[in-house]
Amino acid sequence: MKRLLSSVLALILGLGSVPAQAQTALGRASLPSAAAPVPVPAGLVAPAAGSLALAPALGASLTPAAYAPLAPSPVPAALPARPASAIPAAPLLSPARPAAPLETLRVAALPETAPRMGALFDGSLPRSAAASVEPPVQPEAAAQPRRNLLQRYKDGRNKNPLQNAFGKAMLITTMAAVTVPALWGAAPAMKIAYAAVAADALMLAVILPVALVLAVWRKLKRAPQTAAKPPPSRRARLAVVALGIVLGIGAAVAPYQATGPVVERVNAYTERHDPVAQRDRARWISGGAVEEEVVKVLAPNPVGREVLDKLRDRGGVLRLPPFFISRQDDSYGQHENLFDGVYLSEGEVTSRGWTVEQFLKDPALQRQLVREMSSTVLHELTHAVQGRRPPWTPGYFKNTFEAEQEAFFREMLYRLAELERDPAARNNGHDQWMVPDAAADLDGFLKSVAAMYEKNVSVPNPYFDAFLAGQRARWPSFRVHIYQVLAARAHTPASAKMYMDKAKAAAKEAGLPEPAPLVASR
User: Fold this and answer.
1) Dihedral sign, CA of 91, 92, 97, 98?
2) Disulfide check for 30: which of 92, 145, 442, 508 has CB 3.0–4.6 Å away?
3) Max Cα–Cα distance, the chain, nearest Å
């Protein structure tokens, strides 16, 4: 239509004069309403005196009968011009005033692009600019703002309120529930990271199939997702929220209950791709025989009983970490806070003539290993106690000298209590080396422990400082007791006399009375 109007305008501006029949047709095609005047250069007016001032308004609806008289015809150049006042049928055209330099064209409801389209013909606007003219925006299209990604997400979320409520309930419950064991004192705070990742995987395993099933169901039902739906009932909302809470609690509890199988499967996967994992592969000791024997062996010992009590949660329930067998080149055992696992050396199993597979299947062998490695087990459980302290404890996320010094000190006290508790026990000079060393020089003993861990750092913490301060306070008199126990459990009379002499010297140094032998040496 715009091209047709432009052609008509070009034709009108190109004619020197217009016949009266054409003027009448143009008048009939004019719009009936008035509009604001539009200035038109005087050059656009017909050069002949009294010629047509301008064309009818742009945007007028022209029928073939109306614009047929405007077709080219052999009009003589000297055709007399009619005065402008002789066009009564053009109410929107004002007669040109001879003295005015500009002529005024009154047009009703011209589109915004009309001036620019007119400028195309007088040369003031290039064709490339005219091609960029866009049509006017419809009011209804302008009233709808473009939705951003967040708005589209909210709209899609609101289409499925029950599914959204289920996902929220499950997510919030799971993330809150994974922190409960650490807050309750049943697991180290660092284990939250492992539990959260495992719980997220379980949630995706539940939510994704549910979302897929619902999407397929809607597709089969052929109900468009954008269709308006009645809001779900309160009972339906409570039902899906309750289901999300139950599944969220299950997703949070499962990583804690299945730490052993999860760690074993992760190690089985990584050992196929990582040479280090091939060396340190962990195998979970299942069945519960190890945990039962640990309690049975450590509970009669006062130091062991103290460590076990520190592993109880706030409700008084003993929470032992899972036990594993792993390949270790330079240690008897290790503890890891991330999984809260105790790893016993595989070499301690093979050195006794057992295979790992045989050991894992035989509870009797597992109990025997715990009895023979009870001091190592207590050492690693001391690290488990350290892991259950608040995470803001200085050095909590580092390997520190203080952590190892506390573990070795408690192991030394445990060995001493075992010598004292069992009359048949003997100081063989190998397993009990730390007992006489600590009695001879407490600070030297702590330094020797730190020398075994060159890569560790020193970060004092209030728990170890309080523990060591208590040991130093009782150490002058406790040294005497240590030498008495060593004398009573000596292998030979000469060794017994040596330790008794040291006990007497320690008592004299501390200003205590001379000690007597505890029991006769055997």
Assistant:
1) negative
2) 92
3) 154
**Does the CA dihedral 236-237-238-243 come out positive or negative?**
positive
What average pLDDT does the segment 99-119 reach? 48
Q: Using one digit for the tens of pLDDT, what is the confidence trace for 422-435?
A: 888 877 666 678 89
- In sequence order, which residues have a C-beta less than 8 Å from that of residue 483 and are 6 or more positions away? 439, 499, 500, 502, 503, 506, 515
Other residues' Cβ atoms within 10 Å of the Cβ of residue 140: 7
Dihedral sign from CA coordinates of 169, 175, 177, 183: negative
pTM for this one? 0.67
Give the burial class of 358: count Cβ atoms within 10 A of its Cβ; 0-12 exposed, 13-18 middle, 19 or more buried. exposed
Highest mean pLDDT among 28-32, 258-262, 383-387: 383-387
459 touches 398 (CB < 8 A): yes
> What is residue 358's predicted lDDT score, i.e. its pLDDT?
94
Is the C-alpha dihedral spanning 503, 508, 510, 511 positive or negative?
positive
Question: What residues have CB less than 8 Å from 4, skipping those under 6 apart?
Answer: 62
Separation CA 385–CA 363 (nearest Å): 26
Distance of CA 325 to the CA centre of its chain: 32
**Which of left, alpha, beta for 54 (phi over 0: left; psi -120 to 50: alpha)?**
beta
Write out pLDDT tens, residues 424-468: 887 766 667 889 999 999 999 999 999 999 899 999 999 999 999
Cα–Cα dist 377/332, whole Å? 9
What are the structure tokens assigned to 82, written together? 């009619």
**Measured distance CA(390)–CA(397) in Å, rounded:** 11
Tens digits of residue pLDDT in 242-287: 988 998 898 899 899 889 988 888 887 777 766 655 556 889 999 9
Please tell me the distance from the alpha carbon of residue 22 to that of residue 56, in angstroms, as a whole number: 11
Whole-number Å distance between alpha carbons of 139 and 142: 5
**Per the structure block, which two tokens stand in for 48?**
């002949």
Lowest mean pLDDT among 114-118, 474-478, 497-501: 114-118
Distances (CA, A) of 303 to 378, 379, 479, 482: 9, 11, 17, 15
3-state helix, strand, coil in the chain (%, to 5): 55, 5, 40
